[in-house]
Amino acid sequence: MVRLARLPLSMVFTVVAVLHAALVATLALVLSRWLEQWLAAAVAIALDLPLLAYHVRRAFAPMASLFRALAGTVDSYRDGDFSFGLTWRGQGELGELVASHNRLGDALREQRLALVQRELLLDTMVQNTPVAMLLVDPSRRVVHANLAARKLLGEGRRLEGQDLDALLSTTSDAFQEAFARGGDGMFTVGDEDNEDIYHLARRQFRLNGRRHELILLRLLTAELRRQEVQTWKKVIRVISHELNNSLAPIASLAHSGAELLRRGQHDRLPAALATIEDRARHLEGFIRDYAQFAKLPAPRRENVQWEHFLGQLHSQVQFRLEGKPGDRSGRFDVAQLEQCLLNLLKNAHESGSAHDEVALALRRMPEGWRVDVLDRGGGMNESVLSNALLPFYSTKRHGTGLGLALAREIAEAHGGRIALLNREGGGLCVSLVLPD
């Protein structure tokens, strides 16, 4: 080893300088070689990058096209067009995705076709129904009108977009009054010689968040005429039957009385005359009941104390009172309600119920009063219950079928209602509701 301490100082500096120069030269050589390699690699990458990008783009082009097609078909489905389908030759997950997408399109097409067919059927039914149908929006504009509505209100012209009130202003007063009353109801158009009867029905519902009204106008003239003819035929049969049942015995007894008088058998005349009187009075009551049912006047409603009214009713027919009315009162026509309850109580006594089982229950309801006539007779089967309130329907041999029908007329004339139901344990309950 060279001892630097023994060398001259100038020589030491020279050695250090030579070593430093050698180190710098070595580093410069290494760095130049590295830079050359990097520049060469960079140049190679720069030259190969467009070609690589081209090949990558060419390799992924089918998938990109598939994704664009999928996006396009989704947009078409959203717009309601289900006529598109996709084709993919590859397998794997993308092939399964395309197959699932095509199955979805087929299902949507089938559903759309079924929906279109149902809409076509519904539109055909709506357009060809004899019932006039109008759909009105919140601003009273006609949204939809079928052919019957166009013929009735627009002389066959389209009504969509027109104001309903302006259309009604061109109709008869009966039309305008029926719409002004609101709700459902029947009204007559024309005079007695040429009149049409309509039924008006109105229903409200929400469509697209807005309240709309559906108006139905049904012409009932022909149907009611048929029902009227059938009713008159039934009335004539009932009246003819009752008249024959009374007049035939009267004629026979009158002839027998004349024979007894000719023979001088006066002791048997009182019985014959009594029978004639009985049949004549029965016929008189029958005709009176029909006249009362046909000419029922509008009720004259007044405030009546229930206790006093029920006391008068109890003096005419026997019943047990359930519920104490006290000094409270109802508002009704005394004569009509008395006739109604007398008919109901008479039916209860004729049902086979014991006299002490016939009861009248009076209850206070939120909307008025409820009167129940109760018995423990045989009740009614389902067929009789559904027809018992119809005029001229009776299960009694000599019944006129007007008692319950008259009670219904009286209840409805007061704005109330009547209902029949069988009681648990046997018997019938006739419930009459009278509003205040």
From TrEMBL:
Domain HAMP: from-to ranges: 68-113
Presence of the UniProt keyword Magnesium in the record: no
Assigned GO CC terms: membrane
Main location per the UniProt record: membrane
Catalytic activity: ATP + protein L-histidine = ADP + protein N-phospho-L-histidine
Documented EC number(s): 2.7.13.3
Histidine kinase domain location: 238-436
Enzyme type, top EC level: transferase
PROSITE patterns: HAMP, HIS_KIN
Regions annotated as coiled coil: none
Protein name: histidine kinase
Organism: Lysobacter spongiicola DSM 21749
